[in-house]
Specification:
alpha/beta
Length: 220
């Protein structure tokens, strides 16, 4: 099944509010714990790319009070929501929110101990520029944790996945999920992209019936 692109930036207030209202607490907590396990340092500089409403960096900073997270997104409305969440949680000293294009990161080489990203790749028409930037700004043996949906083999599987998410989601949220599945990459396509970026030391695997993960543990 061919890939169908969706907008790179989810920047209408309606879309951002609908996304923020979706309950990802369980998967976000699992992601945050996995990121911490991959970077076993008391102090670390983390880059979260495509932070959305900022839930993952908040979870990380609550568990790791000495870490500093730069959380970026290209959607101004998402960052407005994230800023309110960060302020409510009292984490302004740990989390720096910035309006930044993942394909053109304004950071020096080898700046971060770890780069993380959840559910960004499928929004990018071509993720290779982002992966090249990731390789540039992460320390040579820094941690990497990237997770996203993968594209199912056919429309029937997409329909089954959409029907499985439950009745607690509204029509806009359901459409967002369906569009994301069409826009996602297959596992083979993901492996090829990481290979082209020169990230051959990153482990790539399917971790659920709809997600893939790319990870590299921090090492000295």
């Amino acid at each position: 099944m061919k890939r169908v692109l969706e907008p790179e930036v989810m920047d209408s207030i309606e879309e951002s509010v609908a996304y923020d209202a979706m309950d990802f607490s369980e998967v976000n907590t699992a992601f945050a714990k996995e990121a911490i396990a991959l970077c076993p340092q008391a102090q670390a500089k983390i880059l979260d790319v495509g932070t959305g409403p900022g839930q993952i960096p908040m979870l990380i900073c609550q568990m790791q009070p000495q870490w500093q997270v730069t959380a970026i997104d290209l959607a101004a409305t998402m960052l407005e929501i994230a800023a309110q969440h960060v302020q409510n949680a009292g984490l302004q000293a740990q989390i720096n929110l910035e309006l930044v294009d993942a394909k053109k990161l304004p950071y020096p080489d080898a700046q971060f101990d770890m780069v993380i990203s959840n559910s960004l790749i499928h929004h990018l028409p071509d993720p290779l520029p982002f992966l090249l930037e990731l390789k540039r700004v992460v320390k040579p043996h820094g941690g990497i944790l990237i997770r996203d949906l993968f594209r199912p083999v056919d429309e029937a599987t997409i329909n089954d996945l959409v029907n499985s998410i439950g009745g607690e989601f509204n029509a806009m949220q359901i459409k967002c999920f369906r569009d994301s599945l069409y826009a996602a990459f297959t596992l083979d396509e993901v492996r090829e992209l990481f290979s082209q970026a020169g990230l051959s030391d990153v482990k790539i695997y399917q971790n659920s019936h709809r997600h893939w993960t790319a990870q590299r543990i921090w090492s000295q």
